[in-house]
Each structure stands twice: as C-alpha cells, then as structure tokens.
Amino acid sequence: KVKIHQDGNWLWVESNGLPDHPMMIGITSWQQQVALPQVYRGTNGWQIPAQPKVAPSPIPIRNHFLRGAVALAANGIPIFNPQNNRGEISQDIGELDKWGGHCGRGDDYHYHIIPLHLQTTVGKGVPVACALDGYPIYGTTEPDGSALRKLDDCGGHEDAKYGYHYHGTGKSPYVFSAFHGVITEVDGQVDPQPRAQPVREATAPLRGATITGFAVDGDNAWKLSYTVGGETRSVRYAINGSSIKFDFDNGKSGKTTETYQRKEGGASGNKDSRPPRRER
C-alpha cells in the first residue's frame, strides 16, 4: 500500500490512507465520520525532507499545528497533533480507537499518538514513523533494541550510528514535543502536505455513542457498528467507481440511504433521506 520514491530533496510517500488493522473500535466520542480511502499520491502525496536540517530553534507542537499532520506512520497513515482542533487531548476524551486513531471531518483516518503497535510489524531497528521535518521516530527502545535513553526537550536525541531521532513512549505528550528540524508553517499546519478528499459535509457528534465493531463487508465495502441509547446501530458504506453509498441502520428510527459522487475538491451527493444524525 505504501510507495516511496525520492525526487531531489524530497521523499515522496504514497498511500490510500487505510491501515491493515481494524479501525474505530472503542471510540466513545464520535463525530459520525467513517474511514474512506484517500488519494495520497502524485502531487497529493506526502513530502518529507530527504536530508533534514536542524532548526535554529525548535518549534513546540503543543497549542500549535492543530491542523493537519505532524508526522507520517510507516503504514502510510498520517499522525496529527495529540490535541484536536479545539486544543483537547484526543486520547484523554474518548476520541481515539485502541490503535490511537479516528476519522477526521473529511472521512480520513489518522492517528493522534505514535502508533507503537507498529513496532512488531516493522521490526527492530526500523522507525515506526517519520516526523514531517524528516527525522525518524522509533518506539519504546533504541533502534538496536537497547533500553531507551534520556530524551531531550523535543522528545528525541542524537545517536552516533542512527543520527538524531525521536521516540514514541505511549504516554503524554504521545508524540514528540517539538520539531527538532526545519519545517514550514502555513495557516497553522506543516507545509507541504496532501489534502483529504471529502465526499460529504462534515457530520455532528453523536452523544452517548460507543463504536463496538468495524469490519470489511465486501469488495470496497465496510461496516461500522455502534451502540447508542440502548440500541445497536450500524453504518455500511461501499464504493462503486466514483459512487459511495451509505446505508444507515438507525434502530427504531428506521433505515436510510445516502449516495455521493466522489470528485476532487469537495462533496457532491444525493440523499434518499436523512438519518437522524444530529448532535445528541
């Protein structure tokens, strides 16, 4: 799923924005977004400096960079600031699944913590992610498997063999604390970075909902199950070419369908009827 190539001073990373692991299970603060494949490729791919440079002064990410990603995981999933766009720590308020991710307002899946579960996937000595300043991020041990050494104020340190790198520790601040390397900020986020491709308007929070299941449900089809108000409900969504169909099982409120056409630049849809998805 992940493709990498170098072009001059940049490493270009392409992915479809979907991890191999299940998603969304365990979330108790849900905005009713789901995980759709994204087109992170070509000029909309991820750009990471091939030769990172030390910044004159580190730039903290706390209360900063509340839009967009600050790093990219080894599986091609973006990693956002631990704080959501309201400044709250997503991990602390039930917004994240057990893998540390959730779906944004563009139906784009991303993490808000370093995905330490990837340590067993990538193996010893391989970064689990890379910050958008170009420096790698390792897990809870040093790249050679030895015990983690003291980290600097950015959340990383220098190594004679592996150079400067960050570490994820599984506790606050959940990602690195500041960019050790040079980055460019535009409109409150690291630039450049790709854009998600939403197919529908952002949805409202569903108060009291808990996501209990997520599964592949056919070719290019998925089903998300949740409980709310003592009922079990679900959203099944399937992609057929440029068409995306959402089937909502709203429990006692009945079943409804929404169909959208994916096109670059925003949402376009025909709604057979609207499910009761207002904030509760």
Give the key terms:
six-stranded mixed sheet; mainly beta; globular; 1 helix; six-stranded antiparallel sheet; 280 residues; 21 strands; disordered C terminus; 35% strand
What does this structure look like?
- There is one protein chain.
- With 280 residues, this protein is an all-beta fold.
- The chain has two domains: 3-191, no CATH class; 210-271.
- It has one helix and 21 strands.
- It has one helix spanning 119-122, and strands spanning 3-7, 10-14, 46-49, 54-60, 69-73, 78-80, 101-103, 109-111, 129-131, 136-138, 156-157, 165-167, 178-181, 184-186, 189-191, 210-216, 221-228, 231-240, 243-249, 255-261, 269-271.
- The protein has a six-stranded mixed sheet, with no helix packed on it. A six-stranded antiparallel sheet has the order 16-17-18-19-20-21, with no helix packed on it. It has a three-stranded antiparallel sheet with strand order 1-2-3, with no helix packed on it.
